[in-house]
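User: Predict the full complex structure for these chains.
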Amino acid sequence: MKTTAFFLSDGTGITVETLGHTLFSNFETMDFIRIRRPYLLGTDEVSKVVEEINETSKNSELPILVFSSLVTAKSRALLNNCNCLLFDIYDIFIKPMENTLNVKSSRKIGRSHGMGTFDNYKHRIDALNFTMENDDGENIKNYQLADVIIIGVSRSGKTPTSLYLALNYGIHTANYPLTIDDLNSENLPSVLKPFKDKLFGLSINPTRLHHIRQERKSNSRYAELAQCQYETRSAEVLYKNYNIPFLDTSTMSIEEIATSILNLKQIQRRINE
Amino acid sequence: MKTTAFFLSDGTGITVETLGHTLFSNFETMDFIRIRRPYLLGTDEVSKVVEEINETSKNSELPILVFSSLVTAKSRALLNNCNCLLFDIYDIFIKPMENTLNVKSSRKIGRSHGMGTFDNYKHRIDALNFTMENDDGENIKNYQLADVIIIGVSRSGKTPTSLYLALNYGIHTANYPLTIDDLNSENLPSVLKPFKDKLFGLSINPTRLHHIRQERKSNSRYAELAQCQYETRSAEVLYKNYNIPFLDTSTMSIEEIATSILNLKQIQRRINE
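Assistant: Here is the predicted structure of the two-chain assembly.
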């Protein structure tokens, strides 16, 4: 069974799309066709989308879903002409908040994923610069400035997790690869020892690692299952011996790894407040 | 005026936090203290958070807000004991969707930001690898594989935008810096000419660029206002002469730049469907 979902916004649309993503993951038997209409700044544009929604609804067996974060009263009024199940974020959330907190909302468009303060922007770019400069053990001079240092074997997810933490939360994230020499010695690399409290380990199922490495360098020693088994087992021994918190990332998304690290290490975000 | 907002989730909490971020940006006069409680997997944990909410509410002048994406009926029932304005995503969205679509939700926890398919994961990592390898004009061999090539002067926002597009939408994003030589010649760099349809230009207010460059290399020729004025003006001339779509990013967040590029160039996302 399938139906169409429209995401309407006067800004990026990220909020309604994120919401839709969560909701739809609860309906495994359904197929949702997603139509995104961000940056709807005038009532003419909204009217056209309303027509589009009603046209789509004519050819749909199931009701159309509409998720809207439009703010202005005029635009929102037009949505009442839609033949759909409408979720108007403004009605659902802003109105009860206004009533309960006894305060008026500003009703300005496109505010939520806007720039924010210059400080916030600077934090984010600083974090990204730090993270790119300290990727994959390339730079080991500035670890005292890191919020967290992610360690793990090659292709365990260090770089995407680091970049996600920097971009989305402004976290200064370094990452350092555990090499065969480190694993053979069963010793934490000496460069990491002074920063033990900042370390977080990534682990991964060896079969999954084998698949990922095969994609990268097929039929190499590096990608062999036995090699992946040895490396992942040795890394976990290291984590346990040094009491380093770690996660098995095999079935986790980058979002899950990143937010789990924040949660388990109680790291303060520098942005998104 | 301030109050406290709790974000409860059995997963990452990204959905409720994104929603809160949007809603709160509509209340400029309010100060919201955010307390995040992700990965609440058992009713014991939820009960503790309910206690925490009620304790907080005793010392709060204004009502406490609670945003929950908890899925299990037992956990959600506990929330009714909260002294707060409760927004239960499940009640608000899932129930009407079930009724309207006449289909049952799966009621599984922590699904929304989970791994998804191996294909989705691979798309995302492939995009990130491509984007890192093709950052800042470092690699110009694979532009035929790019979904988009972002161009602009140094510090106009190319790298953060590229990484955001790769990480969040799986877009293969290359970026290429417009150098002084390129700008002096008023010619599109020859390496870019075959890929004109993939180009997207970033522009920026020269005063803002001056501030950003000052942070990076203070009192350099590179950071001088006159230099920034010359470069930004020349870049815009280039964009116009070659009919390259471009954006002034001065007051835009990375999210806004990234989603605007997707929207203006109608680029298909490879993930997040």
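Residues 47 and 187 of chain A are 65 Å apart (CA to CA).
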